[in-house]
Design goal:
The protein is of the alpha/beta class. It has a single domain, classed as Metallo-dependent phosphatases (Purple Acid Phosphatase, chain A, domain 2, 4-Layer Sandwich). 26% of the residues lie in helices and 17% in strands. It has helices at 5-13, 45-62, 82-92, 121-132, 188-208, 237-250, and strands spanning 33-38, 67-69, 99-101, 147-148, 162-166, 169-173, 213-217, 254-258, 265-267, 282-286, 295-300, 308-313. Strands 4-5-6-7-8-10-9 form a seven-stranded mixed β-sheet, with helices on one face. A five-stranded mixed β-sheet has the order 3-2-1-11-12, with no helix packed on it. Helix 5 (188-208) runs parallel beside helix 6.
């Protein structure tokens, strides 16, 4: 494919994106770079045909370094079908920049929950891996190399857990679905152990290689505000404990990106279990979600103490006419 001048310069900038992905070794600090965060879309036929393409067009025009979708590519009540998977695969390939997709509950843990859908969650998780995690390249018209938690010989095991780096920032993607992380189901324990190991490994690499920041991206709202004994928190308690401990030990900016609640927000909800005080170097970012089909522009500026800057991008064609 012939690249425009804009894309040629962008690709040159991010050509080192994943050159040391396996080790997490940082490349040298560069000028600020932007990327896109989206999630919980599309949920309706109108979204799939109109609103989502509108958003894709705007993201493509922005020439971002990459786009991350943090899960839920259909409504929970829509059947888990091959038609949906193939349609979304084709749509994801219309993103000009590299596209990373993380799995949400609507496309696997909710499978079989609403008649006449009879697909089992475990079987559909396997199918998601077969369709969306082939090889070590991202999706999108231009791709980047991802480090996966398992290789091609272990296709059925946690290939959706990924990491990559840009400059001195390490990105980590995890399969943690809402609304309870599938807690209590047979598959939970093994996947949870894998998520904990992937998170610890990422922070170890970030410390060893003196990275400036870490961004964790997953689908579930882990219910920071609820008591640890709450039913919805039970599937997240161990994971949040690891995130807390690693964030405190890292002592640099950690951004926790999720979707699930469809409520755009940026805040600092993590309270230290020992100090009972807010952990200042931890920031939660929740992406826009249906019916608000918009995106979040994130910028890495390694000269800024916070490293990340965030700007909500409202897609004009998707604005709701207020009466």
């Amino acid at each position: 494919m012939k690249h425009s001048v804009g894309w040629a310069s962008l690709l040159a900038l991010v050509s080192v994106v994943l050159s040391a992905c396996s080790t997490g070794k940082p490349s040298e600090a560069r000028r600020p770079v932007t990327f896109a965060l989206i999630g919980d879309v599309p949920y309706s036929d109108h979204d799939a045909a109109v609103s989502f393409p509108n958003m894709i067009d705007e993201i493509n025009r922005a020439h971002v370094a990459f786009t991350v979708h943090d899960g839920d590519i259909k409504s929970g009540s829509e059947p888990c079908s091959e038609e949906v998977l193939q349609a979304m695969y084709r749509r994801f390939q219309t993103f000009e920049s590299p596209f990373i997709y993380l799995f949400g509950d609507n496309e696997w843990t909710d499978c079989g929950r609403y008649p006449p859908d009879t697909v089992s969650p475990e079987r559909w998780l396997e199918r998601l891996r077969e369709v969306f995690t082939k090889g070590d390249q991202s999706l999108g018209r231009h791709t980047l190399t991802l480090k996966r938690q398992s290789d091609e010989k272990q296709l059925s095991k946690f290939r959706e857990n990924v990491r990559w780096s840009l400059g001195q920032v390490l990105f980590v993607g995890l399969n943690v679905p809402g609304n309870s992380n599938n807690y209590g189901q047979p598959e939970f324990a093994e996947r949870n152990r894998a998520n904990l190991a992937w998170t610890r490994e990422a922070f170890a690499l970030a410390r060893t290689n003196q990275m400036r920041a870490v961004m964790l991206i997953l689908q579930a709202d882990p219910h920071f505000e609820l008591a640890a004994t709450n039913r919805l928190r039970l599937g997240f308690n161990e994971f949040l404990s690891v995130v807390e401990n690693e964030t405190i030990a890292f002592k640099k900016p950690v951004v926790f990106v999720h979707g699930d609640s469809h409520y755009f927000r940026i805040d600092k909800p993590l309270i230290g279990s020992k100090s009972k005080r807010r952990i200042e170097n931890f920031t939660r970012v929740e992406t826009f979600g249906y019916p608000d089909v918009h995106w979040l522009e994130a910028t890495i500026d390694e000269k800024d103490p916070n490293v990340f800057l965030f700007k909500p991008r409202i897609v004009k064609k998707n604005l709701v006419k207020q009466e």
